[in-house]
């Protein structure tokens, strides 16, 4: 059974200053109140080993680095080595900025506590990062399998009371990107203590960010089965055979055979749908923004 809590983390003192820092806010894809929500969680739970999935400019990386304790370490993963908006906006290759560029530009003093991993999914890097992760920020693809697969890949490496933060849990409502449901699906399906900010999106009566705390129920096989079943919904983010196999290797190592079998069903379904989708996409002009 999941428990729901609402918390006010509006940010006071140094927390508010960090959330409002123009060096971060210029590139951040979160509202100031959403950044305060994360800062409040960091202040309460004081994590030592933080994992971020989805780096973009590095605005959230900078937030995590500034607000975490001096002896904390932040590990950030992004599937691209180049800032995705430069890629999507067709910026010439030689002028494209690196993923996470903001940290080096504005916060070079924090680089010593930061490690960034690019050009791979979570499954490509999680074993190198290792266990003991006690705080996770998921803010990546949003289309399935997205955060759902990321979570299942990360779960074996987190502490018993790890905090997971999910951004864009209402993105499908806000910008009518109806395929961007992975964060919401994970938030609604996982068994855990769930935390939401009291501040809600105007017109939608819901928030766009939330968190949950891992407990015994989170790892219960019956509850995990629901998450693996959710993976069998149609995937909208293309995943190569190599990356699917990489993820399966992690899942096979840490989950029962019956759950991995559901992942196999999901990947077979994706392979059948992937080629027609690829052919259709080749007939379209390049987009100027991410599709999901």
What does this molecule look like?
- The protein is α/β, with parallel strands linked by helices and 292 residues long.
- The chain is built from 13 helices and eight strands.
- The protein has helices at 14-20, 22-25, 32-45, 59-67, 84-88, 101-106, 122-129, 146-154, 171-174, 182-189, 221-230, 241-254, 257-282, and strands at 3-7, 49-53, 73-78, 114-118, 133-138, 158-167, 193-197, 209-213.
- α1 packs across α3 and α3 (32-45) runs parallel beside α4 (59-67).
Topology record:
Elements lengths: L2 E5 L6 H7 L1 H4 L6 H14 L3 E5 L5 H9 L5 E6 L5 H5 L12 H6 L7 E5 L3 H8 L3 E6 L7 H9 L3 E10 L3 H4 L7 H8 L3 E5 L11 E5 L7 H10 L10 H14 L2 H26 L10
Helix pairs in contact: 1-3, 3-4, 8-10, 11-13, 12-13
Keywords:
Rossmann fold; 292 residues; single chain; 8 strands; 16% strand; alpha/beta; disordered C terminus; eight-stranded mixed sheet; 13 helices
Brief overview, please?
With 292 residues, this protein is α/β, with parallel strands linked by helices. The protein has helices at residues 14-20, 22-25, 32-45, 59-67, 84-88, 101-106, 122-129, 146-154, 171-174, 182-189, 221-230, 241-254, 257-282; strands at 3-7, 49-53, 73-78, 114-118, 133-138, 158-167, 193-197, 209-213. An eight-stranded mixed beta sheet has the order 1-7-8-6-5-2-3-4, sandwiched between helices.
